[in-house]
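Anyone opening a protein record will find just a pair of labelled lines. A complete record is shown below as an example.
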Amino acid sequence: MSQHKVVLLLGSNLGDQKKNLQLALKKISDGGNHISQTSEFLITEPVEFVSSNIFCNIASEIFTHLSPIKLLEFIKNIEVEMGRTEDSIASGGYSDRIIDIDIIKYNDLKFKSKKLEIPHQKHLFEREFSKILLKDFI
């Protein structure tokens, strides 16, 4: 099986945010994916919703054998295992979350479905914090 180069963005604004991000990265690695690069932590205000809880965010480059859809299922399972109860697509909006993991790029693939868009347009072109985190990855 070939390895696919993927860029992920992870965020948390509940509990011990840095610990949540580190645990999510460990779960990604433990699932057979190789983490090749990780950004510094970046503290930001919530985007597209109001909350008194600030976010801690991180970018990571991984290599995986998983297809885009299998990778999405894998990271959504990590979110649920860690206690995330609402998905922004299912709920129709953003809310506080213990962990959020987004696929930003998957090789040079262009793909769009109801649940997944690669590359992730909002993170690449609209969100300033994402641009800061992704500057060394894209």
Observations:
- Strands lie at 4-12, 34-38, 42-44, 55-64, 100-106, 111-112, 117-118.
- Residues 38 and 60 are 4 Å apart (CA to CA).
- The chain has a mean pLDDT of 89.
- The two ends are 24 Å apart (CA to CA).
